[in-house]
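Run log, item B.
One chain of 303 residues. Sequence copied directly from the ordering sheet:
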Amino acid sequence: MTNAWQYNLLKLTSRLVCLLPYSWLLSLGKILGRLYFCLAGRQRRRAIAQIQERLNLSPTAAEETIRRLFVNLGQTFLEVMYMPALTKEALARYVIFENRHFLDEAMACGKGVIFLTAHMGNWEWFGAALASAGYPVADIVKPQPNDQHTRILNEYRQMFGIEIFSRGTSEVVGAAKALKKGKILGFFVDQDAGVDGVFVNFLGKMASTPLGPAVFARKFDAPVVPGFISRQPDGRHIIRLAPPIFFPKSDDVESDRYRMTLAMTAIVEQAIRTWPDEWLWFQKRWNTKYEGKPGDPGAGDPE
């Protein structure tokens, strides 16, 4: 691997971070996030432009929100590097569950659970906290552009017993088997899905959206449990779980999948509006060009 040095550098960083008290880690993360805000000009400008357009914020409000996002990201990066030092007791201190009974209710159905979430807050600690709490967790993830980043992330995820399946590969067969065994199968549905997605209205603009959670939920009659993690003023995190959704089926497979995707997208939209400084606004969510017309099959509502 020609870029294996990046993995080794991340591992060294992780070892050093694990020596720090958690309070120091949070303070350093704030500094790192502010530095990131200053240096990552392209991402900063894209994030400010997109949040201003999609949430109709003033330039000042948009910049302030994105500044907070970058600070959160600085802290989250160091927290991910800190994962080897996390114990079950530490996770219980730093991550609080709200409405955990909703997930237990869904698990009791015995059909596995489709876990609906987004790239908000410290989603890596989200999965680790679920697994540490005794839930059988599997994730369908999109590989990072840099394979060394993917390598270390998967290593840390598997450290907590999380099964990993790569999106867009034959590994989805394994994901289906995991769901049939009654596991929680996590989906991130807030990224551009390219030509394989379905176009729906997302924050007021048509966006190619993954069909994966709808496909799995319909095929296996699995309940869908939405959940999102957000950072609190003291640095800790809250995982908020919503009631399980049991989607009815009709004879029209395509229509069912589209209807489910619309409903799931609306849930993610609401979470982003509630915690706007937690979502990755600089990602190219609307990258795939929409060329349909209002009223076309799969087009969703017009902008």
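Observations after the first pass:
- The first helix runs from residue 4 to 17.
- DSSP finds eleven helices and nine strands in the chain.
Flagged for discussion on Thursday.
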